[in-house]
Amino acid sequence: MTVRSAATTSSSAEAAFGREQRLQALLAPPRQSFVRRNEYWLITTVSLLVVFSIWEAIVQLGLVRPTLLASPSQIVGAFVRLSASGLLWKHLSFSGLNFFVGFALAAVLGVPLGLMFGTQRRLAIALNPYLMGLYATPRLSFITLLIVWFGLGMESKVMLIFLSAFFPIAINTWAGVKVVDPVLLRAGRAYGAKGWQLFRRVIIPYSVPFIMVGLRLGVGRGLIGLVGSELFGTDIGIGFLIITSGLNFRMPELFAGVMVLAFIGVASNELLEYAERRIAPWRETQQA
């Protein structure tokens, strides 16, 4: 009898262990192939190869005049020449510093002010006409005024980049706070969250996607402001390189400068996406 009970107990344990293993196998994420794991980069690489191959063929076959369009191989050659001479790094260091300072100021001021506008209704009503009026005004129209106020040096350029990036960041952050789900606010209050705790645990996490979108838009607008700031009163910078190359029909140098700006924009966007994954990991789970 004892032997039979022990055998029965052993069989039950083995059956339970087997059920647990099957359950874990069902719950475990399926193994993905190499293509599936690297789908983003593979599609991006193929897309770039196709587009640049067609672009190269169009120029090499003479379908477009060389004074209007440079081929990718010519752009790479211009990039190598500018890099070897040190001219590209001279332009890039000047523009990069201006962009970093202007965008950092826009982010540091735009995010807190956007959060403040979203939570302080009366303040938002009072400042809304000024914010929207300045947002609707083309930033390039401020160039002359900024030069008068700050001179031809770094300050006027930083301020134009700041004005270009600030409004998308502040307005998107504001929009994120305005659309916070009331159910989440009521749930937070039900669990005793008040004031700063509610703000930190509910409002800010919910607004993170809007803040990141605002920062990405701010990067693009800031780069536009960067080029615009180098239209006048300077003989250095990526914008200056693009403008002078275009005026002298040096298309390879012009496109090399444009590609540098495009790379800065793409790299900044990837960096912000990485930051969003670190700050709000639940977003990646929702999008999966």
Give an overview in words.
This protein has 2 domains: 1-30; 72-287, MetI-like (MetI-like fold). Helices cover 82% and strands 0% of the residues. It is an all-alpha fold and 288 residues long. The mean pLDDT is 81.
Describe the protein's topology.
Elements: H1 2-27, H2 34-37, H3 39-60, H4 72-85, H5 87-119, H6 121-136, H7 143-150, H8 154-178, H9 182-190, H10 196-229, H11 238-247, H12 251-279, H13 281-287
Helix share bin: over 70%
- Find the count of extended strands (DSSP E, 2+ residues): 0
Q: What pattern of helices and strands is seen along the backbone? A: HHHHHHHHHHHHH
Q: For the record, what CATH class of the largest domain applies?
A: Mainly Alpha
Second CATH tier, the architecture of the largest domain? Orthogonal Bundle
Mean pLDDT: 81
The general outline is flat
Which keywords apply here?
mainly alpha, MetI-like fold, single chain, 288 residues
